[in-house]
TrEMBL record:
Residues 296-309 have a biased composition (Basic and acidic residues). The keyword Lipoprotein does not apply. Residues 285-327 are annotated as: Disordered. This is Ribosomal protein L10e. It comes from Giardia muris. Residues 310-327 have a biased composition (Acidic residues).
Length: 327
């Protein structure tokens, strides 16, 4: 179960050891003598495994109540050339790329990676995301956040884009969902609390929106700085119990008193040696008592072994021992 203390501890480590990046407001001139605000890039991602296949190749994007990336981030769009003019009417996009442009100019891997590093967020229509994987490949998808939306791009506001979360790698058995990158100021104490409240709100909202919650979540990671290959901080490495919400405490189940009394009686009788082999076999065939493993009776077998080694095995030997003993 993901604990609140573990989430706060991971965010604290991310703030203390994350890589600082100076960023300025969009449109501001870069002045070497101006005081710049240093931010940490804290990347929160969720990976979900063994999700049952859906009839649609891509699940619908999820709209969260709070933004997943800071408001000052740059946004670029990758669209087909047929809708470039209509998307260009939306002022929220800093640049617009087309699939035909990438193919026509034959951008190399390094060129596509420079494009990915030039902007903090890429947006594309949901039906063209497989084409983005084919044209852009890992150079774009793995170096930035790609959000695909089902609405027309020329109608989206900046707040809608920053609050949209999409699945990544939908064709495979492993699906991940990147919740975004959170900025952190130089004060670690106030930063951790701000990040903690934002991350907790995001995870709680995502857990409430997805049908069944995050019960299929196998690993929740907080990356210190994804663009600089910093190590990730795992928060959870095993499956959640079925129908369990991510921040709810685990339900406490009390064992039946009748079953407990039977188990104690069985263990006591086994310790006294009054349970024979037939009774043990009949008891262990019952699936209700499979957790009671048979014990080795060292008090009966060990003395016979020592006697045989000393040459005194004929004394006190029974017919059963003669049948089992190897000569």
């Amino acid at each position: 179960m993901i604990s609140v203390s573990r989430l706060r501890q991971a965010l604290h480590l991310a703030v203390l050891h994350g890589q600082k990046h100076p960023i300025t407001a969009p449109g501001a001139k870069n002045d070497l003598f101006a005081e710049q605000q240093h931010l940490f890039y804290v990347h929160l991602s969720i990976r979900m495994h063994n999700i049952t296949p859906t009839p649609h190749p891509l699940p619908k994007p999820v709209r969260l109540p709070c933004p997943t990336v800071p408001a000052g981030y740059t946004i670029a769009a990758i669209v087909p050339e047929a809708i470039k003019d209509s998307v260009a009417e939306n002022p929220v996009f800093d640049h617009i790329y087309t699939f035909e442009e990438i193919v026509r100019n034959r951008y190399t891997f390094e060129a596509r990676r420079r494009i990915a590093h030039a902007y903090d967020l890429f947006v594309c229509p949901v039906e063209t995301y497989p084409r983005l994987l084919k044209v852009g490949g890992d150079s774009i998808v793995k170096h930035t956040i790609v959000t695909y939306v089902s609405e027309p791009l020329h109608t989206l506001s900046r707040n809608d884009i920053l609050r949209t979360v999409s699945f990544i790698d939908p064709p495979g058995a492993m699906r991940s969902m990147r919740l975004g990158m959170f900025g952190a100021v130089d004060d670690p104490n106030s930063t951790v609390e701000n990040l903690f409240e934002n991350a907790k709100e995001l995870i709680g909202a995502l857990d409430a929106i997805i049908p069944g919650g995050l019960r299929n979540c196998q690993c929740l990671l907080i990356d210190l700085a994804p663009k600089n290959k910093f190590p990730s901080l795992p928060l959870y490495n095993s499956y959640l119990p079925p129908n369990t919400r991510i921040f709810d405490p685990a339900p406490v189940t009390t064992r039946d008193l009748y079953d407990t009394a039977i188990d104690e009686l069985y263990l006591e009788m086994e310790g006294l040696g009054v349970v024979d082999d037939e009774a043990l076999d009949a008891l262990h065939q019952n699936p209700k008592y499979k957790h009671l493993a048979p014990r080795k009776r060292s008090d009966e077998e060990q003395p016979d072994t020592h006697k045989e080694e000393d040459g005194e095995g004929s004394e006190g030997s029974s017919d059963d021992d003669d049948g089992v003993r190897k000569t």
